[in-house]
């Protein structure tokens, strides 16, 4: 058993993958609790896809992919916020329009590079085992910033997530907080880009947080449980990828999904099997 755990650690790229997947698992899961509570899963999925043009532009210009992704992610978050701020469009409508347009633009630009299939697969499904030291540093720094902001604005995010009327009564800057949360989602997507890719991003946001919501009702404990599940899924997914020779990003997501199914069936007092019994 010990040899099974230690054997992959002799490879430096596996060590970097383990650290990166743990960081992403924690950051996505903590922020994912707000996404689950506020019903923003569609927004998270759309935002993950709308950064594709930024990734392609950065790729063509030789910039770090995170730079292009971050710029387009923030622009998308602000754009959707502006479209829905005064009731001009419903949020799901605005998200759908921006999502479809930006993703189509990204795919069109990617196809024009001449290596459509390989590059698209890389962007869509991540390249966890290809994480470099520089990528790891960027992931750690951005992840720390996201967690720090969540900690500093914990009470404000809590209020706007559960009671908009109370937030307005307390004179909280609800518009600023809404935009800040959207930007945090964009930054977290950039952090996760190379780990699970665009196509699987939503799973890392939603699945650990949804699992934690079946185990606890309080937000702090929900965040803690989700972070543990996310980190465990990330690390275990790397081992699964190493030993079964499967893609690392999907392996991480499948582990998280398996945990959700187990909890959904057997969670004390709330699981399907428990309730039937």
Secondary structure elements and pairings:
Blueprint: H1 2-6, H2 12-37, H3 41-50, H4 52-61, H5 65-85, H6 91-111, H7 116-125, H8 133-152, H9 154-162, H10 164-169, H11 174-196, H12 201-213, H13 219-244, H14 248-266, H15 272-276
Helix pairs in contact: 2-8, 2-11, 2-12, 2-13, 3-6, 3-12, 4-5, 4-6, 5-6, 5-11, 7-11, 8-11, 12-13, 12-14, 13-14
List the defining traits of the structure above:
single chain; 277 residues; mainly alpha; ABC transporter involved in vitamin B12 uptake, BtuC
Summarize, please.
This protein is globular. It is mostly helical and 277 residues long.
Cα-based radius of gyration, to the nearest Å: 19 Å
Number of helices: 15
Overall mean pLDDT: 86
Proportion of strand residues: under 5%
Overall CATH class: Mainly Alpha
Q: How many strand units?
A: 0
Shape: globular
- The helicity comes to over 70%
Order of helices and strands: HHHHHHHHHHHHHHH
CATH architecture classification name: Orthogonal Bundle
Superfamily at the CATH H level? ABC transporter involved in vitamin B12 uptake, BtuC
Tally of discrete structural domains: 1
Low-confidence stretches: none
What is the name of the CATH topology? ABC transporter involved in vitamin B12 uptake, BtuC
The assigned structural class equals mainly alpha
N- and C-termini, Cα separation: 35 Å
